[in-house]
What we know:
The protein is of the alpha/beta class. It has helices spanning 24-33, 55-58, 68-74, 87-95, 109-122, 126-146, 169-176, 196-202, 219-222, 227-232, 253-276, and strands at residues 19-21, 39-41, 78-82, 100-103, 152-156, 162-163, 179-181, 192-193, 206-209, 238-240. It is built from eleven helices and ten strands.
Amino acid sequence: MITAVGLLASPAVAAPKRIASINMCTDQLLIALADPEQIVGLGPYARDPRLSWLAQEAERFPKLSGEAEDLLMLAPDVVLAGRYGKRATRELLRAQNIPLEEFDVPRTIDEVKAQIQRTGELVGHPERSDAMIAAVDKAALRARQTASRWHGRVLALSRRGWVTGGDSLLSSLLQTVGLSNSASDLGFAYGGFASLEAIVASRPDLLLVSEEQPVAEDQGKALLLHPAIQQAYPASRRIVIPDQLTVCGGAMLPVALDRLSDAIEQISQRRGVATAAPRQ
């Protein structure tokens, strides 16, 4: 479970009127749950559509550098930050008595729900966090119902052969739809770079990638287009989930779960057709 650090709003304490965020994940929680006039600035990656699910919505808010200087000038009532962000910035904010709320990297759906609830209470809108949690629960229920249709091993593969480890939010999502993360077969608990030979030899049932048609714009992406990968894992053996849906937890989580559920339903249908075909 996530332990609160800093100032948490309660019924007896008024919600902060001026809130800043310097972490991409807390950026998105703030956009989804706070009133627009409460947000005085968001982190440097909030507008990056490759990473942030709410990049377009972030355009309306000031962009912060993530350093302490602009935060000291703004003097917000509270700053939302990642626990593993730049330590010097966080220490300087504390030294200047600017309240700081630190968030861990969520590794399970329950941890995401706890962060949603915490943010809703912090900004004074618990009803919004309740609604978001209800949407997560609804998508998770569908995912669990889908889980009985097919079970398999999935390798989440990114540029340069980066493999998402088993102790991650993505693994929690996979488990919810009845899949297992085969990164553990490669010895990755938290993630790491795997060679082409190791990826092919591990023989997962499916690859999970972020793009349907990757372009070899650099050597990092070129690995995904290697003939050994292309031949062993054509489109029918891939699940496509954009990075923006799994990097953080929040409003994007129901979308990620629904896409995984859709993929499993399609796979189970194909398997049913393949099984039935010889009987005709």
